[in-house]
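Students often ask what a holo structure prediction actually looks like on paper. The answer is less mysterious than it sounds. You provide the chain, you provide the ligand, and the output is a string of discrete structure tokens encoding the 3D arrangement of the protein together with alpha-D-ribofuranose.
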Amino acid sequence: MITVVGSINMDLVVQTDRFPKQGETALGNLYTTVPGGKGANQAVAAARLGSGVHMIGAVGQDAFGDELVAGLKEEGIQVQHVKQTDGASGIANILLSEGDNRIIVVPGANHSVTTEEIDALTDQLAASYLVMMQLEMPIPVIQRALEICHQHGVPTILNPAPASGFTAELLPYCTYLTPNETEAEEIFGGDWEAALEEYPNRLVVTLGQKGAQFYDGEKHVLVGGFPTKAVDTTGAGDTFNGALASALAEGQAFEEAVRFANAAASLSVEKFGAQGGMPERAAVIERMAGGRP
Ligand code: RIB
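The corresponding structure tokens follow.
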């Protein structure tokens, strides 16, 4: 069982031909609401690939909250530790244009989770094969969950997104850290390749279509990305993380797990919505069999 401690958002997505300039009003083409949140996305990615997944988080007592919990249940994710609290669910305001996205997250209920609640879930964390987290929750909550896992020898993946919440105190407690290139620069400064050497087989930097890079203790390894036709890149990083968790939890070697995660991420961008394109296992195996770039 993989446990995800993370955010659950409703994504309010506007598609437009170009991003408006500062102070400009532009007409959009389409407005859609779809389930998102880095935590929920990573949970869904792992569940679609066949992992048992348990979610810890919070939504509001509003229509979005009901819909988000129902969506997680439909994916077969355990939601008994997703609380419904007073106030609004988290939302992400997403602008899709020019093959890219711009996102503003309003955490809402996600920020109501407390360290005391995490303490009360120690047994759940301790019984997990692997625990996965991001930084859309209060940082002390993430810190506490990492400490509990560390104490109980449970491996963790911390996806440090958004990186602005990252603090160096988190690092010693996580088993794996999975920033993208921008986040790696924010955390380690310009020379993140040097940081890779300090954390062999633990720190992997995702590089979009190029793939992902880590250091195996002797050499730098660039695991190439798979060719894809991107429709919507929202949630590609989350798919990578969910797939990496699935692969590591079932005992795959690190490089193989990264390759599996790259293949899953390449499929995820081919459909609209953070969760819309997240693949099932058979599709990932097929993409991997299609050749390694
Ligand atoms: O990583 C993509 C996600 O970031 C979106 O689903 C949005 O909710 C934000 O959390």
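The pocket of alpha-D-ribofuranose is lined by residues 7, 9, 11, 36-38, 41, 92, 103, 105, 136, 234-235, 237-238, 274 (CB under 6 Å).
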